[in-house]
Every structure is written in structure tokens, then in C-alpha cells.
Amino acid sequence: MRFRKERIGARPFVLKSTKTHYLKNRNMKKAFVLMAALAMTSVLSATAENTTDTPTKKTRSEVFITEKGTEWEPAGEGVTRQIMGYDGQVMLVKVKFEKGAVGTAHTHYHTQTTYVASGKFEFTVGGKTQVVSAGDGIYIEPDVLHGCKCLEAGLLIDCFSPMRADFLKK
Q1: How far, in Å, are 4, 13, 29, 31, 131 from residue 23 at the CA level?
Q2: Of 69, 124, 121, which Cα lies nearest the Cα of 95?
Q3: Could you report the per-residue pLDDT of 77-132, keeping only the tens digit for each?
Q4: CB-side exposure of 57: number of CA atoms within 13 Å?
Q5: Beta pairing class for 102-106 and 91-97
Q6: Which of 52, 47, 94, 51 is nearest to 70 (CA)?
Q7: 73 by DSSP, 3-state: which?
Q8: Coil, strand or helix at 35
Q9: Direct distance between the N- and C-terminal alpha carbons of the chain, in angstroms, rounded to an integer
């Protein structure tokens, strides 16, 4: 272990471990960065949530979410969705499509993964088009244009990170 001389106030030099000094400074920096990140997150959340007069649901779901106890919400012509669980970091959503329904092309800053539970869909993600069916999955990076057309009635399971706060507006 290395030591260095350090003057403490009016007292003479005292030997101090440089490793201990380094760890204290490093931990203080980590704590500062963490506090700054939390403060920024709070400010951004408050700003994002207060952009409309529409109230927002709480920021986490119940622990157990039943299909019968959760309402299906309209999400476009021939499309309904059911929110199956969420907190600030993640959201799980079931999306039901009638044959011929379209998931309009759009972008969002969330990472999205989609599992095809049933049916057949033509997905376009970032300019690439492919037909997917039950058992297939799709990964969608943030800010990438994507959409789909339902070829056979079916159900998609979407997972978003962070949660889609816009889905919680009532």
C-alpha cells in the first residue's frame, strides 16, 4: 500500500493511504453522478407528465393482472390493446388485431420486442418487410419506423422499455 503526506489544518503532515483517499473520491463522484441522474429523471418525468391536463395512472401496475379484470382499449381500427403490467422501466401489452387491420407506421424512443402469439402479420421495420406468424418475434430499436398489417386475425405481445407513459393516459 502506498502512502502520501497530507497536511491537515494546522497539524503537521500525516501519512494517509492513497488507496483510501482514491476510493473516497471515487465513491463521492459516483454518489454525485447518481444524485444528478435522479434529479434529472425527476425533472424530465415531471415535465413529460405535465404536458397535458389528462391525468396519468400510477407508475406501476398491480402485481397480478388478470385478462378478465383488465379492459381492452381501442388502439386503431380493428385493433385493441390490454396493458398487462408495467413500471417505469418496462411495460407488457397484448394487442389484438382483426384480419386486415393496420398498425400504422410510427416511431417512438422506446425499445420494443414483439412476440406473435397467434395470427399472421406483415411487419415493416426500418424499411425491411417480412411476414411473421405464431411463435415468431420482432426486435425494434428506438426511433426506428415500424408498422404492420394483419394477414390473419391474431394477437401480439409487445414489451416496451421504458414503459409507454402515453398508453396510461385516460
Answers
A1: 15, 21, 10, 12, 54
A2: 121
A3: 999 999 999 999 999 999 999 999 999 999 999 999 999 999 999 999 999 999 99
A4: 16
A5: unpaired
A6: 94
A7: strand
A8: helix
A9: 61
